Fold HlyB/MsbA family ABC transporter.
Amino acid sequence: MMVKFLPKLNLRRFETPRLLFRGVDRRPLYLGIGSMFLSSLFDGLTIALLIPFLKLVLGEIDTFTLPDLGWTASLNQWLQAQGKDTTVGLCTIVLVCSLCLKAYFFFTAKEQTTGYEEAATHALRRRLFTNYLYAPTRFYDTTKLGTITNNLQMEVVYVGNTLGYASVCMISVLTLLAYIATLLVVSWKLTLVIVVLISVIAYAMSLYLRSLRKYGDRVIELGRVLSVRILETLSGIRVVKAFGTEKFEQERFSAFSNEYRTARMELRAKQHVVEPLTELATLGSGMLILAGAYVFLIQQGLLNTAELMLFMLVLIRSVPVTRRINNARGYILENLSAFAKVAEGLRLAEQFPPATGHLPFEGLARAIRFRQVGFSYNGRSEVLRDFDLEVPQGQTVALVGSSGAGKSTVASLLPRFYEVTSGSIEIDGLDIRELDPISLRHHIGIVSQDTYIFNATVFENIAYGLPEATPEQVREAALLANAHEFIQHLPEGYQTFVGDRGVQLSGGQRQRLSIARTLLRNPEILILDEATSALDSQSEALVQEAIERLRFNRTVIVIAHRLSTVRNADKIVVMEKGRIVEAGEHAQLLAQRGAYWSFHNLQTVAR
Ligand SMILES: Nc1ncnc2c1ncn2[C@@H]1O[C@H](COP(=O)(O)OP(=O)(O)OP(=O)(O)O)[C@@H](O)[C@H]1O
Ligand SMILES: [Mg+2]
């Protein structure tokens, strides 16, 4: 028999359970623990009643007496007066009732703790998802999507399950305590021997289980690696196909999977030893106890056969209980790392403090101003330096320049996807860091080249986040975006489901869909980042036309490689390595014969 108590819990490894289980109704948990306790109590009672019952049946006694507790005196008197048959019948009834109650409370305990477990998992998943939603762009630059999905899908479940296992542990420990208490009443000496034996075996087993720990850790880690790999490979399936690297991926995956298999084999081989060893130790110690009790207690008349039978019964019943404790303990140890991972997700807000500013953004009246803006993604290399730019209300400013010059970076600083490292961005003289970012973003529309199409209908894609949008509004937005035409030709028009990532649509169609989405929100500030670079000239013309319409009565920052897109802008800004090298109108810049002029020449030659 193996009793293995929980290891000393290192609270830092648990990452404060309070953080994890905050805001979950604890009543079911308390109810569950209470029921567990009652269940153990009735279990103990059942076993305690077995001795007199056995003695009665074996004919060692004729009447039944309860321990003298004062109030039991009159009850004992009454019992004495009953015949043996009545007593046996009574004993049977009480035993059966006690067994039923034990089962009932066991069930309730399970039901309640499972309810708590699921509620806690659900709450965790929700909180974690919210945290990920609000995490800044910066976080996503450095975190694998696979890790996040894994945390949301698996790790929270592990944490929840651990709660379940903890309650199993608790039930089992209580049950064992009830057994030991019963044994103590019969013979403290024998109980002492058993407890010492159990402890020695438990200690030996815990040493062994601890050595298993590193195998368990490795299995879990490799499992995570594997799921991240799967997600990454499949999200890049287009690249895989395009480069014909299926075989390469297949072999790479196979290697990972094989490593995982080996690690699991190692772990399981070690685990297989536990069961037979437990059995051996249990039976061995059982035999020892039997022989010892016979020589030292029964022969001396200190113990009778009924009591010895009870001991054996308790020993046998203890085996599954201790095995449950062992398993639960192993599971909890195995999954402590899940606690750390989930807690890390919940602490994102500490790591990435929420953006400052709480003034609602009321609208742009005069101008957006970049003042001496410096920016770095990693704190080392500067991407923008001394960037000074004014975008007056209602005007269109175009950013052009070679790849990597920092154009998209400028565009992502305005909606505060990132915060400037030095200098400031002001709207009507107010630093945007004073503004509530969500309210600011409500007024900014962004159309980038990398348009995301949701797995939903065309209508839902355009009216994304605007449940009250009417079909007329959506249609009007689509018309303005030059998207209505092609939507009409889709099998179910606006109700056509555009599949996973909208692959059924062409690049230009997706682009126009995303322009319609932006238009519907009617933002007063518009950022168009390379909105036409992926399109053929016909789609480009359509998108271009849509953009021209969008510009009307709006403040626009347009980024483009193709200078044809930007020639109508009020101001064209040429960037190089994070700085502005030229600014002015199209004709003016051409006349200067500088960077813009040479760009322009390159493109006209290319065409
Ligand atoms: N999320 C990011 N994390 C770290 N560095 C980044 C990130 N995004 C861009 N950079 C770096 O910042 C620099 C400017 O990038 P940016 O995307 O602003 O250029 P761009 O002018 O828009 O180029 P392109 O015309 O190719 O779109 C590049 O050197 C790039 O490597
Ligand atoms: Mg860019």
